[in-house]
Structure of UDP-N-acetylmuramoyl-L-alanyl-D-glutamate--2,6-diaminopimelate ligase:
Amino acid sequence: MRYLSDLIDGLAFTELQGSADVEITSIAFDSRQVIPGSMFVAVKGTQVDGHDYIGQAIKKGAIAVICEDLPAHTAAEVDFLMVADSAKALSLVAANFYGNPSAQLKLVGVTGTNGKTTIATLLYQLFRDLGYKAGLLSTVENQINGQVIPSTHTTPDPIELNRLLEEMVTQGCDYCFMEVSSHAVAQHRVANLHFSGGVFTNLTHDHLDYHKTFDSYLKAKKAFFDGLPKSAFALTNSDDKNGNIMLQNSQAHRKTYGLKSMADYKARILENQFGGLLLHIDNEEVWFKMVGTFNAYNLLAVYATAMLLEQDKAKTLTSLSKLTGAEGRFEYIVAPNKVIGIVDYAHTPDAVQNVLSTIHDIRKGNEKVITVIGCGGDRDKTKRPIMARVASEWSDKVILTSDNPRSEDPAQIIKDMIEGVDPAFKRHTVSIVDRREAIKTACMLANPGDIILVAGKGHEKYQESHGVKSHFDDMEELEEQFKLLV
Ligand SMILES: CC(=O)N[C@H]1[C@@H](OP(=O)(O)OP(=O)(O)OC[C@H]2O[C@@H](n3ccc(=O)[nH]c3=O)[C@H](O)[C@@H]2O)O[C@H](CO)[C@@H](O)[C@@H]1O[C@H](C)C(=O)N[C@@H](C)C(=O)N[C@H](CCC(=O)O)C(=O)O
Ligand SMILES: Nc1ncnc2c1ncn2[C@@H]1O[C@H](COP(=O)(O)OP(=O)(O)OP(=O)(O)O)[C@@H](O)[C@H]1O
Ligand SMILES: N[C@H](CCC[C@H](N)C(=O)O)C(=O)O
Ligand SMILES: [Mg+2]
């Protein structure tokens, strides 16, 4: 049983109506999740204001409410606490409710536009291989010691997050590796967690629908490092132009990694092919199964993190050389007639550019590159024309298609994409709204040796349109079509 007084330990509140000596059964920020004896935290959201649901929460049995503005009518039997920022308060009471599990783990957060899932997953796989019990919180899935728990967000909400961390502690985990999205930092989902380290990947264009400007997107990421304690390490990519800015105001122990500039942890690419990467890393030559320059950065970040967590160098490199990373990231198959299919989660301009330049670097001759790509609905519209431009410039043929249109008209999303395609490249760009048909057409157009990139959905197993998620799997589609390519 938790008492209200325990949950609000450390909370700066301006007013308390009622007694702190009551038992709380659960906490909820959604009135629909309230059960008798709950504490309800009213959060102002992007769609609605949680304060409008205080009445409903009380009807469902809430006995304590945290809010920024007191409602006109308060119930005498309910405790009310006023705070300046309910989202921040939520993360504190959630951590207190679950006994501050992050302090009992070595928790490492990974942030940046691209590479978070790859790095967090590699770290999780590496530490399990090194013999530790570990947890993972990622876009693809959450895991505790091999047990898979489906994930709905890149970074869970504070209640789910602390509940999962508590479960990791119960199961004896030593480490947890998690992705920290910019939405999570802005919404204080990770406030009040005790991090042992933070890793920065890179910062390029994404999520401007939510953050509005690149500068506020940058500040959201930077706030994560500003909040790290002195005892933590902060590891940044010194080749990224914002890499050093990220750590500017961090009191954590600062370290850098890079392929080009001066850095504490350095690597050089010796070979980059479909079979993998040969890296000169910290004075050793090692083959890895991961493909592409961007994965050289990811591998180096993982290696540096392992060193900062005081792991053995030889064991780390041996284990890392066997790993293949997260599902749907540069995964490839070869058809009987030698057409190559690649499924990749590239859904930002930079990621599309990286994955296509990698394909160009590693292809053997003049094989054609056919790209199937769409852009998400209800997401940053300004990235649409840029992604289409990059795809058209770096491919011999592009098929623009749908990728989770959500509430939007898929044909309109494709029109927004076409705006970015240079007239010179329009000849080799076609639009096919139905993603299954688009993939099928790419397979029909491909000759032996050609490379088909299906970008944007990676591990996703659905296509979301008008609130309905229907089963869809890019790799499954390619496999079906490839059977016919003999
Ligand atoms: C834009 C965004 O991030 N929205 C998140 C946010 O919701 P919101 O602020 O829009 O909430 P709202 O619907 O306005 O509601 C406000 C409050 O009223 C409450 N409410 C609402 C209705 C009701 O009947 N009763 C009630 O109490 C809600 O529970 C909420 O507390 O807070 C919710 C609870 O934590 C999240 O589920 C929701 O994620 C939505 C579903 C989402 O799509 N988020 C994506 C964009 C996201 O977070 N992505 C990032 C990473 C992307 C990446 O880089 O990969 C992620 O970490 O996953
Ligand atoms: N270090 C990197 N730099 C640039 N691009 C990368 C890097 N790592 C991966 N990518 C590209 O970005 C895509 C997404 O990678 P990943 O899922 O690891 O990123 P993420 O940061 O977790 O993305 P999300 O914000 O959606 O959770 C990959 O499929 C690949 O195309
Ligand atoms: N985490 C990202 C993933 C985008 C993946 C793409 N398939 C889409 O649906 O837009 C987002 O929610 O914006
Ligand atoms: Mg991710």
User: Anything to note?
Assistant: The radius of gyration is 24 Å. The pocket of 2,6-diaminopimelic acid (ligand 3) is lined by residues 154, 347, 376, 379, 403-404, 456-457, 460 (CB under 6 Å). The chain is about 35% helix and 25% strand. Residues 333 and 341 are 5 Å apart (CA to CA).
